[in-house]
Amino acid sequence: MNPGSIALIALAVGLVIGVGLSAIIAWARRSRVTNSKATSAEVPHGAAEVLDGMDDAACVVDASGLVLATSPAAARYGIAVGAGLENGEFRELVRVVRASGIATTETVRLSRSAVSLDPRLVSARASVLGGRLVLLILRDITEQERLEQVRRDFVANTSHELKTPVGAVILLAEAIESAADDPDQVRDFAARISAEAIRLGQLTRRIMSLSRLQASDGVTETEPVSIDEVVAASIEAHAVQAESAGVELIRGGDRRAFVRGDAQILIEAVGNLIANAIAYSPAGSRVGAGVKIDGETVEIAISDQGIGIDEADRERIFERFYRADDARSRRTGGTGLGLSIVKHATQRHGGEVRLWSRPGRGSTFTIVLPRIDGPAGQDEKKAKKKNKKKKHARKGSATAEDARVRNGENA
């Protein structure tokens, strides 16, 4: 073999060895980077900025369970940087996801949080972030669950309540057909059908009112509302009911109070309280409607001398279709929606409803609303009207005096 061939062979072998060494070095370098990332306990670049912009509570947890980074909302659940996860279910979720490498979502019910003692329902999702880190995202779904439960209860209760009058109408119609030859029975059944139809119409109207109140977060069209007019309209609307029940309606308290809102909604709310007070009061008693201006609020109190409400029922009295005295409510035609409408109407006006009651002594429902000053020009109009009356009085006096003078001259 000549020297030239030997040189070529040596060059080829060297080239192969060089390429192989380069490949080994590159592979080792990549492996080192990969292993470094897999074993790194540092938060990836940009993750902290993403967490800062999140509305949900979120945190990054390392292999030892230590929190490395959090979103601002994480403080609601007592999660802080440099501390471990206090909740055992969160810790278990992070451990399972780290072991499996598969993102998992679970629903966790918390007995309390850092800012609330009320039970909270949280959707917790954990996913792997790098080799040793886990990203935990918490979303409060308490309100979502509550609304879903309200929807189910509302549909179930509404269906039940509608079946009662509808079934009664069907049965009474069949009874009329069977008693077609007996005019007295026909008239009796027809009157009962009319009563059931009225109850059905009242129930439908109240369901629609309640749905309208719950359809938005607040009253959309507002204007200054005179509480004097609200109370007067509510009393007038139930005067016949009070007279039939032998109950006296009394109006008292402060005058010229104004709030901002929808007059018709407030009239319905106060009217519901008056109607309930009359229905649960004995004949010969009184139902009072009083207004009190207390600083920046207006209080509308409806008091009765009726049967009162047991303490066990007071927490649920504002629920839809709930009746403290079910038998009496059905006998008086109650729908179980009146107080629920009062609560939602008051809340939509930025206020609250308070209840005082003693069994055997009566109840007082108080609507508390934010007060506003009277409409601009209201006082001026009243002052002008008063001055006009004074001018007419003075003019009448002058005319009478002139007549006396003329009569004296003629004499």
Can you describe this structure?
The chain is α+β, with helices and mostly antiparallel strands and 411 residues long. Helix content is 52%, strand content 20%. Mean pLDDT is 78; it is low at 36-40, 326-333, 397-401 and 403-411.
Helix and strand arrangement:
Blueprint: H1 3-39, H2 47-52, E1 57-61, E2 67-70, H3 88-100, E3 104-110, E4 120-129, E5 133-140, H4 142-178, H5 183-214, E6 223-226, H6 227-237, H7 239-245, E7 248-253, E8 258-261, H8 263-279, E9 286-294, E10 297-303, H9 311-314, H10 326-331, H11 338-348, E11 352-358, E12 362-372, H12 378-410
Parallel strand pairs: 7-9
Antiparallel strand pairs: 1-2, 1-5, 3-4, 4-5, 6-8, 8-12, 9-10, 10-12, 11-12
Helix pairs in contact: 4-5, 5-11, 6-8, 8-11
Notable features of this structure?
411 residues, alpha+beta, seven-stranded mixed β-sheet, five-stranded antiparallel β-sheet, 52% helix, 20% strand, elongated, disordered C terminus
Radius of gyration over C-alpha positions, nearest whole angstrom: 38 Å
- How many alpha or pi helices? 12
Number-wise, the strands total 12
Mean pLDDT: 78
Unreliable segments of 5+ consecutive residues? 36-40, 326-333, 397-401, 403-411
Summarize the structure.
By secondary structure, the chain is α+β, with helices and mostly antiparallel strands.
